[in-house]
Amino acid sequence: MIQEPLNILKKYWGHQSFRGSQAEIIEAVLSGQDVLALMPTAGGKSLCYQIPGLIREGICIVVSPLIALIQDQVSQLKKRDIKAIALTGGLSQDEVIKQLDNCIFGNYKFLYLSPERLQQSLVQERIAEMPVNLWAIDEAHCISQWGHDFRPAYLECGVLRDMKPEINMIALTATATQPVAKDISDQLRFHNFRTFKDSFQRPNIAYRVIADENKNNRLYSLCTAVKRSGIVYTRTRRNTLEISTYLNKKGISATFYHGGMSREDKQSKLRSWMNNKSKIIVATNAFGMGVDKPDVELVAHFQIPDCLENYFQESGRAGRDGSEAQAVLIYDPGDQRKAKEQFLDTIPDVAFLKLLYRKLNSFFQISYGEGKDQVLQFNFNAFCEAYKLNSSLVYNGLRIMDQHSVLSLSQNFQRRTLIQFSVGKNILMNYLDKNRDIAVLVQNLLRTYGGVFDFETRINTRLIAKKSAVKENTILKALEQLQKDSIISYQAGHTDLEITFLVPREDDTTIYRFAPELKALRRMKSEKLRHMFNYIENTKQCRSKQLLRYFGENILENCGHCDVCVEKNYDSDSEAQNIRDKILTALEGHAYTSRQLIEHLMCNEHQLLTTLQSLLEDRMIAVNSKNEYVKSR
């Protein structure tokens, strides 16, 4: 049976052989078994369903979480003259119907869609008419509430079993612990299934953890050493702009990318980086899936991620061509506290959720036993202000109640109003002289929010209204006028939202129904962050061993080039001599600071400083007037 898959691999992809477990996985799928495939980033997961989809008569339905990932997959298939369709956002009802009809009658081999699109009854009805040959669930960890990127809509993937129970299924992911793997098979109702797990080991990546109070300078040093391309992950949209601006000012070509940008801006920034016009791309974790750039030699995390799953997946975007690469996490002493505040302190507990639910019913004057199916307009800022509630806790609490079908939030639910002044201060002053009716508003904005001239800044319109002694609607109209007059760029946060109550009001009883799951969620988030902190603090065990052990894989050999291994290796005379030789070679005709040498030679900081001191004492090197090391004459 494997000969036919191999022929297709050669014909469409030009490869002469399969990698890892690909051949076994394909054979299991073609034999009719359900399959859970755990394969590393860049491990060739897509071939495991694409080749069976091509061999079998009919169409393969692929559920995938990100539009960018879907578009990339469909584009790659079309380049190989394989007929594939993507049901992405922005399509009209007629366009969706036309695309689905093409799948039924047009001899297409692949239909890609998001889990949210799968929820639509029209889509389900048309899929039921298709000659489906395989169900494929990509990024399958999203289906598990214990996974790092849980998507409630993924729970609907089980409906595929009801539609065509005779069709087998393959689920694929690059990051899954044992509990997540079990949850995936349970949620997808696997039967007669096999699990395949390739080693997650990436021997060409050197993992490093660096503590430094001057993170900007350390990042600059790392990026200076990059010859091809790199990725810097940071937590906030504002940070992406700040860091890329800093790097550009220091002479390193950098661009930025985050989820709040327009589609055109995203494509432009990505194109600049992919074509190596920008060496570094600074991004939030919205960036990465579906982006296959083989020459990334540095992935740097500027803040502590919320879990090892995210860190490992994002770091795995380095060295896809097999060349030596680095995955570096930079942190300062306050970063652990900040991570805890962001990832744990904003998760509501049962007591807060009960309080929030009661306040919501009071806000809308819903009586006990009433409220089911009521659709109401909801002003998020007014609600938080009225009851003096933390907006982050309220936001996450509403999301949890939405996930557990207590209520339903409109799909455009968000709580961010973003502005940035697009003119200089002199032009602004002239504008305010002619528009004195909004001068107080602008003054309050400038006093309350620093950086609004330089960065896109999130503002609280209700707070500005209070300071300006006007109604919030007046503030919104003024912001719209400022945008119209090209004084600011403005993204409205939609404070008036639709909220639908799905069950009658029962106060505490409503929340108690899923209280155990909420407690388990808090424990799980806390445990994941604890593992992340342990990874940072563990300077005794090889970094690769630590990461692989977390995913249930034990290796005997140390990687030899992570910061922990390098520190241990320095104990040998040969390693010490090796570093001495590297320093002396680097200083031939050049002058470097210690910081530059650390990054240029990719050495452990303690080892290099110790060796520099030894070389100074032996008078083999000296320090010039710029505090740089030079070779003695």
Notes on the protein architecture:
By secondary structure, this protein is of the alpha/beta class. The chain folds into 5 domains: 3-197, P-loop containing nucleotide triphosphate hydrolases (Rossmann fold); 205-340, P-loop containing nucleotide triphosphate hydrolases (Rossmann fold); 344-414 and 497-524, Winged helix-like DNA-binding domain superfamily/Winged helix DNA-binding domain (Arc Repressor Mutant, subunit A), CATH 1.10.10; 417-492; 570-631, Arc Repressor Mutant, subunit A, CATH 1.10.10. The protein is built from 28 helices and 21 strands. The longest helix has 23 residues, at 515-537. It starts with a helix and ends with a strand.
DSSP strand count: 21
How is the CATH topology of the largest domain named? Rossmann fold
**Main pleated sheet:** 7 strands, parallel
Rg calc? 27 Å
Q: How many domains in all?
A: 5
Output the strand order for the largest sheet: 3-4-2-5-6-1-7
Secondary structure topology:
Elements: H1 3-13, H2 22-30, E1 34-38, H3 47-55, E2 59-63, H4 67-79, E3 84-87, H5 93-105, E4 110-113, H6 115-118, H7 121-129, E5 132-137, H8 159-163, E6 169-173, H9 178-187, E7 193-197, E8 205-211, H10 215-224, E9 229-233, H11 237-249, E10 254-257, H12 263-274, E11 280-283, E12 296-301, H13 308-315, E13 325-331, H14 335-343, H15 350-363, E14 375-379, H16 380-387, H17 391-403, E15 407-409, E16 417-421, H18 425-434, H19 439-448, E17 457-459, H20 461-468, H21 472-484, E18 488-491, E19 496-501, H22 508-512, H23 515-537, H24 543-550, H25 563-569, H26 573-586, H27 594-601, H28 605-617, E20 621-623, E21 629-631
